[in-house]
Amino acid sequence: MVIAVNAVFLQKEVLEGYGHYACEILRRIVLAHPEHEFIFVFDRPFSKDFRFAPNVKAIQVGPAARHVPAFLYWYNISAPAALRKYKPAVWIQPYGFCSLTTGIPQLLVVHDLAFRHFPEQVSWHQRWHYQRFTPKFLRKATHIVTVSDFSRTDIEQQYPFTLDRIKVIPGAAREGFRPIEWEQKQGVKQRFTAGCEYFLCVGGISPRKNMMTVLKAFSLFKKWHKSNMKLVFAGRLAWQYEDFLAKLKSYKYRDDVVLTGYLPEEDLEQVTASAYAAVYVSDFEGFGLPIVEAMQCGIPVIAGNNSSMPELGGNAALYADSQNPQQIAEFMQLLYRDEKYRQVYVDRGLERARLFNWDQAAAAFWKEILATVPVSS
């Protein structure tokens, strides 16, 4: 069987939630099924690292699909045309969009509907594209996968015609996210925070990630405790970040804030495992992978009490109103002042993280691939 894969976001050193999910699942599926051929369709030059096995053929099809006109052309004209000669039985679409013109059965992955809940945080042209075409994508797809019960319910409520058509397949933390030795932690802290303990906030800097609220919470924490604690933001400058950078220049505790930018995988693993606690209080998440990554590293988590995050963290995280810096700061203080209290959430997090498994996710995803293929194939 020939299986086509949309690989436009498999770009080395810029993988984030969508890309990691696709990469981890597809790598396992490719290696587990050498009897099938996989056609990975890229829209720009790609790394050979994503050719996971000899049964992967990688092709580049332009134009680069990074803005709305290019999306429409790539998904509906150039990519379907390039795939005709391969005659795939199914086309995996991991990033929320699919082709409206192809006759190939498509397995569509939709992580969340953030654009419906926070439209102001999406550029007008992308918002138009999402609003106009998401229902068309959901109708066109043969099968649909999402990453949490929250997202499934949200999609079904927003688009009732998807009822009973959506399979939930959660992601997991990658293997490199694990506890590390004290000596190694000290080295990481020397490298990034001059040897100081730090709270960690992972994610691209954008309004939805609530970085400004985290800064306000950190101000309260520093006011209450004259410690050398730092605050580390690990992530690229993503969207509408200018206001955050401008305010940071005059921030009272600017010298205690570290912006790492996008971190390579190994560095992110070590920075996560060396943190005092993780603070992940987004306004909205379809899954919230950094929560599981921190828990698997033995790091306590302060998470937002909205969207999928309580589902993800269970009783292993502390939940704060994402718009309430006082509440976030109080949780920072609780973890800082009481090591036994902190250890409770370390232990709970390690146990909770074991519930998420990439091998199980890949096996479930493979079943959805087979279900997408017509019986005659």
List the helices and strands and how they pair.
Elements: E1 2-6, H1 17-32, E2 37-42, E3 56-60, H2 68-83, E4 90-93, E5 106-109, H3 114-117, H4 124-140, E6 143-146, H5 149-158, E7 166-168, H6 182-193, E8 198-202, H7 211-224, E9 230-234, H8 242-249, E10 257-261, H9 265-273, E11 277-280, H10 289-296, E12 301-304, H11 309-313, E13 318-320, H12 325-337, H13 339-353, H14 358-372
Parallel strand pairs: 1-2, 1-4, 2-3, 4-5, 5-6, 6-7, 8-9, 8-11, 9-10, 11-12, 12-13
Helix pairs in contact: 1-14, 7-12, 10-13
Give structural notes.
This protein folds into two domains: 2-172 and 358-372, Rossmann fold (3-Layer(aba) Sandwich); 182-353, Rossmann fold. It has a seven-stranded parallel sheet with strand order 3-2-1-4-5-6-7, with helices on both faces. A six-stranded parallel sheet has the order 10-9-8-11-12-13, with helices on both faces. The protein contains 14 helices and 13 strands. The protein is 43% helix and 15% strand. The chain has helices at residues 17-32, 68-83, 114-117, 124-140, 149-158, 182-193, 211-224, 242-249, 265-273, 289-296, 309-313, 325-337, 339-353, 358-372, and strands spanning 2-6, 37-42, 56-60, 90-93, 106-109, 143-146, 166-168, 198-202, 230-234, 257-261, 277-280, 301-304, 318-320. Strand 9 (230-234), helix 8 (242-249) and strand 10 form a beta-alpha-beta unit. The longest helix has 17 residues, at 124-140. The protein starts with a strand and ends in a 5-residue tail after the last helix. The protein is globular, with a radius of gyration of 21 Å. With 377 residues, it is α/β, with parallel strands linked by helices. The mean pLDDT is 93.
